[in-house]
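Supplementary Text 2. Reproducibility record for the structural model of the 701-residue chain.

All settings were left at their defaults, and a single model was retained for analysis rather than an ensemble. We include the record here because the model underlies the residue-level annotations in Supplementary Table 4.
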Amino acid sequence: MLHSRHNFSPQSIPTPLHSPTSHPKRSIFSRRFPTMAFCPACRTLMKPVPDQGDEVCPLCDSLPSIQNENSSDVPGRNGLFPFEKVRKGQEDLLKDARIALGDGRHLLANAPTGLGKTVVALTASLEVALREDKLVLFLTSKQSQHKVAIDTVLLMNKYGPRLSAVDVISKQAMCQLPEARKFSKAFYEYCNLQVRTKSCPWSVRDCGSVAEFASQKTMHVHQLVQLCKRFGVCPHKTALKAAARSHVLVCDYNYVFSEISQQVLTRVERDMGDLIVVVDEAHNLPDRIRSHLCGDLSPRYLKKAIKECRSYDKALSSMLRSVLTSFLKILEDREGEEKAERAEFVDLVVKAIRRASRTELSLMDLVAHLEHVGEKVLKDGGSSTLMEMANFLRNWNVMDDGMVRILTHGKNQKISYKLLDPSILSGPVFKEIHSSLVMSGTLHPLSMYADLLGMEKDRTSFGQYPSPFPKENRSIVVTPGLTSLYSRRDERMFKSYADSISRIADRLPGNLAAFFPSYDFLRQVRSRLDGWKAKPILAESSSLTKEEKNAFLVKLKTFKKRGGAVLMAVLGGSLSEGVDFKNNLLHSVVVAGVPISPPTIENKALMDYYSQKFGREKGFEYSFIYPAINKVLQAAGRCIRSEKDKAVIFLMDERYAQDRYSKCLPDNYDFIVSGDVGGEVERFFGRISSRQKEIAEVQAT
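Retained model, structure tokens:
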């Protein structure tokens, strides 16, 4: 029985189609779709022919009855695909995805913007899931893409069988406890404690009926949260319980590629082999996995931990002070970075705690002590630094291979660790899951991502799909004589970049976005444009807020009507990757330089590791060249977002024309080399204007 804290009547929730306990585990698929069949030739979902009792494959046209007068009235002409026609390019991706997922394989798909990847991915994965009793996990790091995925399922429901999808974000973001927002890394320990001690009022309430309703009515995550608030139940717990009876779970990468995956599997009542995984924007996945297993410890953080435990455990406080003293000794009077060794830091900590406690304690004894006292802090409602320190020490000591550990001196004193090899986490996942579709518009080269993610060669296929946008709507120009090489960064070079950008903007009928390797490079070029007043300049700063970013978009829309403006931002930032400049908001993109990462200890360690694993050439390309090229492709793609958009892309570094870099660009990146940047703008838009006039004349006749 549901009880609402807001007088929300349980009768407003429709009676469940079935009792969650009256059917065996995972029987929902065969129960909900008892007459579904799939074409034995192409694995497409069979479609009923009205009034005939037959079923037909919409791809193979295997029954002549499909040609009767009623056939055009059958919605969803291509299996679960919700549109009447599959566009060119979509058809190949849909076919490849159906075959790969149906065969229990992995498909790496480089599918450009505008192809309609989401609807294809959900169509193919759901057809296989329905046939083989699997659960589709649609993984995306963007909440905006959560909405697209849920909207797609809702659209599919209009024209086909009833499908259910659950949308879930992080547990902390969905939590209704007022104190949830004050935690950083220790939130999950706090949540587990609240659940274990039955102290969370949202968790203790039975969410079964709400979950049952949620499993039958596809909702966006904010709608699910509001429903759970009305009944006083935990939204995250309810969402995963609902997912156990649903067809699709839309969630973040870490629901599969992190240590919480086992908890998620338990909640959704599935094994790894029951999952069909769709990874959206998959070019981000290796770095997301790497960043998940990382951590750092600073003297400032240690002091905070000492202060926190002083009133709880004086012995622990004394041990941490001893660790701090030893830590500061290895940090003092030095600058820069150096590699740290796992065993050496463990030895430093162990000697320090033994000196303070006068007992033979081990590192894991300290971890247990930190967790014990940290739990007391959490019970009292505090945000426990001790818990976070315990996590750091535990992870520091896990392994040597595939990790880099760094000691940083100077102003930002700290010791840190980071995962180098994402396949340590992702390889076992891809080996165990049923199948996957790993897709992005900049998944280049496909073979590199298969290597980085540890995907089995005999189970992995590659798919390269053409852009649906007209080739003549884009021109790519490499400019000679300009480079962002550190050895050539001087007054003359910065001035040359500024002059080239101003010449482009002077001839451009709209907005220009110029992207730079770093904020410093941006500032250097920006300062050389102080005397140029032809168009307004909007420059990104490192402290740019979400509100300021949105304000930039509003200003660009306004300036577009007045002749345009110049947006200056960094490569790899939110403006170069996380913003959709719709309706031809940009008429040109300048990529100023090659965003090669600096040769830090971490980047050198990554190159050394990949060189040892994949060979010297791939080691350099995987760690430096291709990550830079990926940033370039993301930024360059900001200006062409639909088949109507038209723009000139300038790759403003002579290295793009050199074999070492040009071979790393996609095959469809046909460029010309020209220093006449203003002339190239005039010629391109002149061709566009002439073509539009020809079309208008033909239409008039």
